[in-house]
Structure formats: C-alpha cells, structure tokens
Amino acid sequence: MTTTILDDVRLPEKWSKGSSGGPEFLTGLVPLAGGGEYRPRRWTNPLHRYDIAHNVRKPEDIAELRSFHFARNGRHRGFLLKDWLDWTSASDGQSAPMVTDQSLGTGDGVETQFQLVKRYADAINPFDRPVAFPVVDTLLIAADGTPMASGWSVERGTGLVTFTAAPAIGAVLTAGFAFDVPIRFDDDWLSISWDTINSRSAGSVPLQEVRGPWQVIS
Q1: Nearest partner of 204 among 218, 195, 193, 196, judged by Cα
Q2: pLDDT at res. 59
Q3: CB-based contacts of 70: which residues, under 8 Å, 6+ apart?
Q4: pLDDT at 135 over 70
Q5: Cβ–Cβ < 8 Å for 214, 2
Q6: Structure pTM?
Q7: Residue 179 DSSP symbol
Q8: Which domains can be identified in the chain, with CATH numbers?
Q9: By three-state DSSP, how is residue 81 classified?
C-alpha cells in the first residue's frame, strides 16, 4: 500500500474559519428492472471536501497562500485543517473536550492499544469516525472516569493510544480531544485574479481529505 506524504503543519486558521465543506460518501446507484434501486456503499468512511477561496482576499494573504501552495507542491503533499464545524470530541463538535466524551474501549487485561474514535450518535445506525490526528496537548484519557495524566502515549498519523500496562479487565476507557483533518489541495493550479491594485482574489481553492497510511513529516 502506498503512503501519502503529509506535512505536520496546519493550514492557517484565518483561512479555514468560515470555509465551506463537509463529508462526502460514495454510493453506487444501479437501477433495477422493476423500478427499484441497488445502492452499494463504496466507502466505509467519507472524505471531507472544503473550499477556502472566499477567505483569501488581501495581497498579504495571497502571498502567504502562494508560499503554502508552493511548499506543498500543489496536490503532492498533504497538511492538516481545523474544521470549525467539527473539531472536538464533544457531540456538538465545538465545545471544549471532556475526558468522558468518547469511548476508547474496555480493558481485558491484555490489550494495550486502542483507536481514537469519534461517534456520531443515531438511534438506528451510529457512525464511528477514526481520528488519526488529535491536536497536540489536548488529548485526555480516563479509566473508569478517573483521568490518567501518564501511562499512555498516542501515535500521530494513526490515533492509536498505547498504554504502558494493559488496562484492567472491565476498565471503561474514555477520551476527549481536539482533532484535525488530513487534507491536500485538490488542484495543482492556484488561480489568482488581480482585482485592483490593493486587492487580489482566489477563484477557487478546493481541498480534499486524504486517506492514510501517511508518511508524516514534522
């Protein structure tokens, strides 16, 4: 399996704040002879798409964006983005993370690794989204509701939490965190218009989430 080069750097928040976008699933649609449909799910997890063009207007922002685009080699190198509508483990995606926000798993006395996940609640079909890039220094871990300040570590690029010692049988593990979306430019071409002597504008700056595994460069 090929890896995606991802620079461990976040797109400046002044561009991501107010951006448009969200998750996209891929569903097949096959018409059937009787008028019904066959709708196979092509992706288990969605890919998020965004556009930040309307946030980039000032000449200094355009210059900074050009430098960022050059450094990423267009679509070649990924980076990170704060999705302002959904950036924490809280159910509303915006409240400060709490140590009991998300289930991490249940101890069995043997397993030491657990995957960070954000669950989107639904009475019929809840959805678990793997989280690979928690924001540094925001991750909170608890066992049976008691915060653990040490005894664990997290791997960036996988979101795997590894405990120094296997949690006790039946221990309820929870986590709270802020997180970023692994992303890339969705166009090798950065189109900029010269509107006036003091104004520039980007016609479109689409961004596309990228799947792992990642080769994280820091």
Answers
A1: 193
A2: 81
A3: none
A4: yes
A5: no
A6: 0.92
A7: B
A8: 1-87+180-218 (2.40.30), 90-179 (no CATH)
A9: strand
CA contacts within 13 A on the Cβ side of 166: 10
Backbone angles phi, psi at 105, to 5 degrees: 145, -175
- How far apart are the C-alpha atoms of 114 and 159, rounded to whole Å? 8
pLDDT, tens only, 141-162: 999 999 999 999 999 999 999 9
> What is the rounded CA–CA span in Å between residue 145 and residue 173?
8
What is the distance of C-alpha 179 from the center of its chain? 6
Which among 138, 121, 137 has a CA at the least distance from the CA of 129? 121
Q: What are phi and psi of 65, to 5 degrees?
A: -65, -40
Residue in 7, 13, 18, 20 with CA at minimum distance from that of residue 61: 13
Nearest residue to 44 (alpha-carbon basis) of 168, 114, 130? 130
Question: What pLDDT, on the 0 to 100 scale, is given for residue 204?
Answer: 82
